[in-house]
Design a protein that fits this description.
By secondary structure, the chain is an alpha/beta fold. The chain contains 15 helices and 14 strands. α1 crosses α14, α4 runs parallel beside α7 and α14 crosses α15. It starts with 11 loop residues before the first strand and ends with a helix.
């Protein structure tokens, strides 16, 4: 007999006082729906209206960039305080319409604020930047970044704060500082990509300085009653990179910053563990077998983080069954469950789960590959084959998201390879149309 108390449906009060209506969050996925000026569009409204009505307590946007010249992909939304069209009344009206659509059914809508750093592809940037001039080596897809100067780092910190204030003023109900997955803040945390010898590099305290200062700038702008989240890698899973031990130290530093929700993820472009895939084998950190068999990729890491963290935790990556989600909450390792890809095909999946109409979320990613094993599989020894499998699966999900945003039915029969080609074709077209 099912318990009358559904753990997934229980409200949760954040430290700032905001009450989440349940324990489910649609976490960030890049949308690629911005216009040629990198502003929000009616497609954002349509997509987030669907997600807002989909039952999750929180919906977190994809990367909203603080620098329009260093973006994660064409079609990002950018709020660049140095560029008037990014912050004029038209841009703000578009943001307000996005926020209104995403919150009209009582869901929280949090803006994820980000800087792509060295992970801005060749066709999307003139010059990527980072803590140091360390190239992202993925078959020539990325230029060598220019090392940031001190005054530029200080400017980026102020940009994070200013964008958070704009988000608050335009009706978003919270913000998230993106400190994971190899983007700028994450690259400062990693000894592989941060080789600086000044106060922004070296010790973990110095490497974490950019993250801490961005969080402080955001909190100073939005005040104590507004949700501020941080997304952090549990581990980069790369030899010599940001380790789990580093993560635990950063969490201890964040304890004093008044964070309302810490999202735990992992991996970078080189090691895309957030997608359940190993990247380049020569620099991969081996994952324990006990971790590989668990439904949630980073739950074991969250259990250790919980022992040092004083803020609420959310774990993202791999949750697909009610049984797995309820067990994770019962373990005490987390307070909120982060889910992403199932919302691309079933925007109402959280509502269906909460109403007990389903016990399992869709998991199309298990079949999105060129081959289940061998040289053409996601586990191929050939980096090119790994990339095609990873980007093809991503492209398939992005195409489904795009269809919802344009009011079309999803097409789950669409092939992965076709989606891969369409994804790149669309992004290249957006890059050509960018007005800079």
């Amino acid at each position: 007999m099912r318990s009358a108390v559904d753990p997934l449906a229980q409200p949760f009060t954040l430290p700032c006082g905001v009450v989440l209506k349940n324990r489910l969050c649609k976490t960030a996925m890049t949308e690629g729906l911005g216009d040629a000026q990198l502003r929000a569009t009616p497609e954002h409204e349509r997509l987030y209206a669907a997600w807002g009505a989909g039952g999750a307590a929180i919906n977190i946007t994809g990367n909203v960039m603080v620098d329009r010249f260093v973006i994660e992909r064409p079609g990002n939304v950018a709020i660049d305080i140095t560029h008037a069209p990014s912050v004029d009344e038209e841009a703000r009206a578009r943001l307000r319409a996005w926020a209104e659509a995403g919150t009209r059914d009582g869901a929280q809508l949090w803006m994820q604020i980000s800087h792509a750093g060295r992970q801005s592809p060749r066709y999307a940037t003139r010059q990527p930047v980072g803590p140091s001039a360390v190239t992202l080596d993925l078959l020539g897809s990325y230029k060598t970044p220019r090392a940031l100067e001190e005054h530029e780092i200080l400017d980026i910190i102020q940009r994070f704060g200013a964008v958070a204030k704009i988000a608050q003023d335009c009706g978003f109900t919270g913000v998230q500082v993106h400190g994971a997955h190899g983007y700028l803040i994450s690259s400062f945390l990693s000894p592989v990509t941060n080789r600086r010898e000044d106060r922004w590099g070296g010790s973990i305290e110095n490497r974490a300085r950019l993250l801490l200062e961005c969080v402080r700038a955001v909190r100073a702008q939005v005040g104590p009653g507004f949700p501020v989240s941080v997304k952090l890698n549990s581990d980069d899973f790369r030899k010599g990179g940001f380790s789990h031990a580093d993560c635990l130290q950063v969490v201890e530093l964040l304890n004093a910053e008044g964070i309302d929700l810490l999202e735990i993820s992992g991996g970078t472009y080189e090691q895309p563990r957030l997608l359940g895939v190993e990247g380049r084998s020569q620099d991969a950190v081996q994952v324990r077998s006990s971790t590989r068999v668990r439904e949630a990729y980073f739950l074991e890491y969250a259990e250790a983080i919980r022992r040092v963290a004083t803020m609420p935790l959310m774990v993202t990556g791999g949750f697909r069954t009610r049984e797995g989600m309820e067990a994770a909450l019962a373990s005490g390792a987390l307070d909120v469950l982060g889910i992403a890809r199932p919302f691309c095909t079933h925007p109402d999946c959280a509502r269906e789960l909460l109403r007990h109409r389903i016990d399992r979320l869709p998991a199309f990613e298990q079949k999105l590959h060129l081959a289940p094993r061998g040289w053409a599989s996601p586990a191929s020894p050939l980096l090119l084959m790994k990339m095609i499998n990873v980007l093809g699966a991503q492209g398939w999900y992005y195409q489904q998201m795009d269809r919802i945003a344009r009011g079309r039915p999803v097409d789950i029969e669409r092939g992965m390879l076709r989606s891969f080609l369409r994804y790149w074709w669309d992004d290249l077209g957006r890059a050509i149309r960018l007005r800079r």
